[in-house]
Task: structure prediction
Amino acid sequence: MSNPEITDEMPDTWVREVCDAIEVYDHTVADAHESAVVIDLTPAAMRVLDADPGEQLVIGWTERYGVDWGLGRADHVPNPQTLDARTPAEIAAAVHLLLTTGSPA
Result:
């Protein structure tokens, strides 16, 4: 899909494409399902993102807001922020920037 419609639940094939694209950058996906992708943070990523111990990077999507990201747990992200990305490759590139620089752009 070059420009998928963002919905609360994405097809398994699209989620897999997002995970595969993220893993190209050598980041490990801890969990993935129809509404989110969860990435465990390395010590370096924790420092860059100023994350608390146990927090994870959660990438989610909704029809209303598009793709977003936040620190928390798969079931609760208190302050999600917009991720200006729609395709699996764009999402992966933004995730890589987040994990290495602390900013998605």
